Amino acid sequence: MKIYLAGPDVFLPDAIEIGRRKVEICARHGLTGLYPLDNVVDLSASDASLAIFKANEAMMDAADAIIANLTPFRGPSADAGTVYELGYAAGRGKFCLAYSNDPTVYRDRVARMCDVTTSDGRLIDPEGLTVEDFGWPDNLMMIHALDLHGCPLVTPRQLSADIWHDLTAFEACVELTVDHVKGKSS
Amino acid sequence: MKIYLAGPDVFLPDAIEIGRRKVEICARHGLTGLYPLDNVVDLSASDASLAIFKANEAMMDAADAIIANLTPFRGPSADAGTVYELGYAAGRGKFCLAYSNDPTVYRDRVARMCDVTTSDGRLIDPEGLTVEDFGWPDNLMMIHALDLHGCPLVTPRQLSADIWHDLTAFEACVELTVDHVKGKSS
């Protein structure tokens, strides 16, 4: 079984090493991890970003499942590229899993960034935009996509000490994938 | 032709009115706009967020196209729920369009939020994470998904005076959809 490994991990200084560790964890559980940086792309080419997109999409199409790293990235929500990929995978009928190394509820994360107040029964930010308040760690679309198209979001009990390198929740996703494969074959 | 109207518009104080205006613009061009808040959901129910998800997904499945509002939301990137929906629509083979009322390049938007420096030839944020720098207004996955699965991202020349209510770029997306339908039928 092939699993597409989505996440802002590709933006880390040690992006290659994190990918190697993730692929190795998959292999230990009998699964094949497909990591975006394993695609060979000429970054000096004028159409490098298009080449990256095409290679990532082909990798997702070739995969049976996705494990997305939804740890918040430059704001209260997950990385946009990763969220796009989770949506694409769900749309293509892939088995969808994800983790976030920050279990904080979305509302509380927004409240750390800015003033959150109540107006006409709505929780709002300083721009007057509603702050989603269903008790989930991120937007309901990702949360329930996971519930209905794969497995519920995996989070640690507490914020990971090293949110970008702790792969405990990632490995839990790999184990859930193995359980899914066993369940299907039994 | 049915178009799913994705965007953080649903979080505005006048969310219903914005939806009404978008549906009206679609109708003026002979198209049917499907707006998430047109779904009837009991928000006091314990499973309200799941009901919203299911209704939105059913609406997307019923649509032929999506127009996503990718105007940056609580950070340098678009709203996560909207990005998920764009990915889902692309995965389901829908015709994909989007606009952003802020044409600023992603790198510059991050640089307004935090210090962006250079390390080993990479542009990085204070956490050491790479800042994507391909000259696009947001993550390359959404940008090229639009190029390859619909129409390129529509942006105004300058930041809209009212980024949450200016529907000029939205209407341009509607017109592109009409051109697409005409192109197919001619």
Would you mind describing this structure in some detail?
2 copies of one chain form a homodimer. Chain A has 186 residues and is an alpha/beta fold. Chain A folds into 2 domains: 2-102 and 137-185, Rossmann fold (3-Layer(aba) Sandwich), CATH 3.40.50; 105-136, no CATH class. Helices cover 41% and strands 13% of the residues of chain A. Chains A and B meet through helix 2, helix 3 and helix 5 of A and helix 2, helix 3 and helix 5 of B.
- State mean pLDDT of chain A (0 to 100 scale): 96
Low-confidence stretches of chain A: none
The main β sheet of chain A shows up as:
4 strands, parallel
How large, in whole angstroms, is the Cα Rg of chain A? 17 Å
How far apart, in Å, are the first and last alpha carbons of chain A?
A: 16 Å
Category by helix and strand content of chain A: alpha/beta
Give the chain pair forming the largest contact, with residue counts: A-B, 59 and 59 residues
Helix percentage range of chain A: 40-55%
Q: Assign the CATH architecture of the largest domain in chain A.
A: 3-Layer(aba) Sandwich
Query: Strands of the largest sheet of chain A, in order across it?
Result: 2-1-3-4
Overall domain count of chain A: 2
Offer a concise description of the structure.
The first copy, chain A, has helices at residues 15-28, 48-62, 80-91, 106-113, 140-149, 168-185, and strands spanning 2-6, 32-34, 65-69, 95-99, 117-119, 122-124. Chain A is of the alpha/beta class and 186 residues long. Chain A folds into two domains: 2-102 and 137-185, Rossmann fold (3-Layer(aba) Sandwich); 105-136, no CATH class.
